[in-house]
Amino acid sequence: MIASPMEVCCLHLPFNEGSAECVLTLASPWDVIPQNYEELLSDKELERLRSIVSEKRRREYVLGRIITKNALSTLVGKIKHQDVSTLNETSGCPVIVNSDYAVSISHSGGLVASLVFEKRHSFGIDVECISEKNIRAAAHVTSEQEPVPRNPEHLIIAWTLKEALSKALKCGFYRSFDEFSLSWFAQSSKICHCSYANHPEFFGIACLTCDYSFAVSYRRRTPLPKKYYAQFLDSIHRIQTSVLNNSV
Ligand SMILES: CC(C)(COP(=O)(O)OP(=O)(O)OC[C@H]1O[C@@H](n2cnc3c(N)ncnc32)[C@H](O)[C@@H]1OP(=O)(O)O)[C@@H](O)C(=O)NCCC(=O)NCCS
Fold first, then answer.
1. Is 80 helix (H, G, I), strand (E, B) or coil?
2. Number of domains into which the chain is organized
3. pLDDT at 248 over 50
């Protein structure tokens, strides 16, 4: 449907009440989006698309919706893409209409990411490319009191960890940045972990790879053992490398 490169990473989470899954997809908007993409979007999604002027933003929107539908069909079986709507609430939070699944979406520097998961859980994701503009923004978002080394890479990682939390909380960055402050930050190899001062119930993991930082924030009670997130981040690295090597 979409020209390669696009890979899907399936992460199986062993929850207490039985197994559950979430599906992470990373894709590049510079890929050829199928000519029939309008047939894959619902009427409401097309209505929203018509209001988006920027070509880059249109591609991100279309690709985000298509990979979310593909992920949903991995989880629930065959679906008719046109019947599934991922719309944004007033806060901007994306919602898969009439579904037991929720989604978190992010785009930056040519990558679009979507994580589809069961609604009873809370996940937020963020991807940011390392650029001069983003480094300046990241320095603004993290205070000197926070336990994060003040170099460009770590500041970008901290930013993604915070934005991922803001999405897991469904509020976005409309609250003060203090709300998302980090109280603990550690790095082991290329994987960083954090706790949040004002949201101790959440945990964040991030990795920096191929000039992108990618972060996931989720509730601590979500029993995601270390070996799973190591696997998760390995997959992200593999997908990013594959997507970026094949991108224009
Ligand atoms: C959430 C937010 C930070 C995302 O910013 P962004 O630059 O668009 O970053 P991303 O590409 O990573 O994320 C975009 C996606 O976030 C999701 N999103 C937006 N608001 C959200 C919210 N309240 N909760 C959860 N997810 C949200 C959307 O799915 C969106 O993609 P879509 O429009 O295609 O559906 C932004 O919408 C926001 O809250 N802005 C507030 C003001 C601000 O920008 N401050 C300065 C930041 S340095």
1. coil
2. 2
3. no
Domain identity same for 114 and 1: yes
More confident residue, 34 or 133: 133
Q: pLDDT digits over 197-243, tens only?
A: 999 999 998 888 777 888 999 998 876 655 666 666 666 666 666 65
The tokens describing 76, both together, are 């629930």
Q: How many CA atoms lie within 13 A of 225 on its CB side?
A: 6
Q: Is the CB of 91 under 6 A from ligand 1?
A: yes
Going from the Cα of 82 to the center of ligand 1, the distance in angstroms, rounded, reads 24
Domain span including residue 241:
1-121+225-248
Query: Which atom of ligand 1 lies at the shortest distance from residue 88's CA?
Result: 35
Cβ 166 under 6 angstroms from ligand 1 = yes
CATH number at residue 190: 3.90.470.20
> Closest by alpha carbon to 229, among 147, 164, 141?
164
pTM of the predicted structure, to 2 decimals? 0.90
Domain identity same for 170 and 153: yes
Kindly state whether residues 112 and 231 are assigned to the same domain. yes
Check if 92 has its Cβ closer than 6 Å to any atom of ligand 1: yes
With a 6 A CB cut-off, is 213 part of the ligand 1 pocket? no
Please indicate, yes or no, whether residues 95 and 34 belong to a single structural domain of this protein.
Answer: yes
